[in-house]
Amino acid sequence: MSRNNDRNIKKHNDKLHKAQDKAKLAKTTRAEKLKEITKKFNEAKASGEI
């Protein structure tokens, strides 16, 4: 009997895709937060607070 049966392959792919989706979500969230921080910094700089 082979270890690479359909059920094991599906479980592995599901686990892999879940990890990839989590990493992608973290990256996009970080980029959005960085945009917000940059925007606030530029607004504060323009108003002369810094």
3D structure, described in words:
The protein is an all-alpha fold. 84% of the residues lie in helices and 0% in strands. It has one helix and no strands. The longest helix is centred in the middle third of the chain and has 42 residues, at 6-47. It is rod-shaped and about 70 Å long. The model has no long low-confidence stretch (mean pLDDT 92).
Short description:
With 50 residues, this protein is an all-alpha fold. The protein has one helix spanning 6-47.
Low-confidence stretches: none
Gyration radius, to the nearest Å?
Answer: 21 Å
The rounded distance between the terminal residues' Cα atoms is: 69 Å
Share of residues in strands: under 5%
The helix/strand order is H
Q: Quick one: overall form?
A: rod-shaped
Largest sheet: none
State the share of residues found in helices, binned by percent: over 70%
Strands, total number: 0
Structural class: mainly alpha
The count of helical stretches stands at 1
Average pLDDT confidence is: 92
Write the layout of secondary structure elements.
Layout: H1 6-47
Entry keywords:
0% strand; 50 residues; mainly alpha
